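Per your request, structure below.
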């Protein structure tokens, strides 16, 4: 087992975006109409540099991470951002951030994480992951979640008894609803067997959840294959809350791996978290022919200021809602 690295953690802010060709763009737009009830979202545009109260969206995230402290000193040894270098440095005075490095974006969330994981950090090093379109997070939020992750990474065990080296955060509906700036994401299903449940949240047996836009890892050989095969994109896809496009892919893989009980739970919107976790590991092992016996992941529920983490900017409707709140 690699010796634990005692360096301060590193922060990674993911803020890349796709530039698909015309054929892919048409296909993507069709999927988005399906997933977002006809709402448009940003594709091929640098939404992270859209202005919000006179400042680029991503600069709010950068400020929160940069000003986070531990025992009076900067929390992070270094901060890295994936975006378009030229556009980013034109919009933001990077000289104000002494430990910041801007990396040229190239591909997907999983692709950027893979590039960073294998080229910029050593085994045993701690990495906290943020997303550049969550401008509500504050330095207090960053400090708090870093402490929460500290208590889990390399210490807690997953449902199968493996030591946790990767955390993926989610939020629960009741924690987001009381403070959300994006009420259009809180729509209830009005008819059918799922009447009363929330369209854009994944249904679990005791809560409804969405992506928490935060994560953390300790670089360890057990998570190498997860990063190598960009499997994080599968988890990130759940931000669409089981839209028909994502839904069908999940059901297909669950059916192929004979996880029939989980298929029933997905359809009934009553997933059991442990069964879901075990099924995902099973699907990944079988589809990618991997041995994840030593892999330990953790689904962390953000309970404090959950809306700060969930409220990201997918499209113009979200940006408009943010601007309205900022004007107040």
């Amino acid at each position: 087992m690699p010796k634990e690295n005692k360096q301060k953690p590193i922060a990674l802010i993911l803020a890349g975006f796709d530039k698909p060709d015309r054929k892919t763009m048409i296909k993507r737009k069709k999927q988005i109409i399906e997933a977002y009830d006809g709402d448009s979202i940003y594709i091929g545009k640098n939404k992270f540099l859209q202005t919000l109260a006179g400042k680029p969206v991503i600069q709010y995230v950068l400020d929160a991470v940069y000003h986070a402290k531990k025992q009076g000193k900067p929390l992070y040894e270094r901060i890295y951002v994936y975006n378009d270098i030229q556009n980013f440095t034109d919009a933001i005075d990077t000289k104000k951030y002494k430990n910041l490095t801007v990396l040229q974006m190239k591909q997907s969330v999983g692709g950027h994480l893979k590039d960073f994981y294998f080229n910029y950090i050593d085994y045993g090093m701690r990495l906290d992951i943020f997303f550049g379109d969550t401008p509500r997070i504050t330095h207090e939020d960053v400090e708090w979640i870093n402490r929460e992750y500290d208590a889990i990474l390399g210490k807690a065990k997953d449902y199968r008894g493996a030591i946790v080296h990767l955390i993926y955060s989610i939020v629960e509906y009741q924690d987001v609803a009381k403070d959300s700036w994006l009420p259009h994401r809180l729509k209830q299903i009005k008819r059918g067997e799922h009447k009363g449940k929330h369209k854009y949240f994944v249904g679990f047996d005791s809560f409804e959840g969405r992506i928490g836009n935060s994560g953390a890892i300790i670089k360890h050989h057990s998570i190498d294959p997860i990063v190598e095969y960009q499997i994080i994109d599968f988890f990130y896809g759940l931000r669409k809350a089981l839209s028909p496009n994502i839904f069908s892919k999940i059901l297909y893989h669950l059916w192929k791996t004979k996880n029939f009980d989980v298929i029933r739970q997905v359809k009934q919107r009553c997933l059991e978290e442990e069964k879901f976790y075990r099924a995902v590991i099973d699907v990944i092992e079988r589809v990618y022919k991997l041995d994840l016996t030593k892999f330990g992941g953790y689904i962390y529920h953000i309970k404090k200021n959950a809306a700060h983490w969930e409220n990201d900017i997918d499209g113009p409707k979200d940006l408009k809602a943010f601007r309205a709140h900022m004007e107040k």
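Residues 72 and 287 are 47 Å apart (CA to CA).

Regards,
D.
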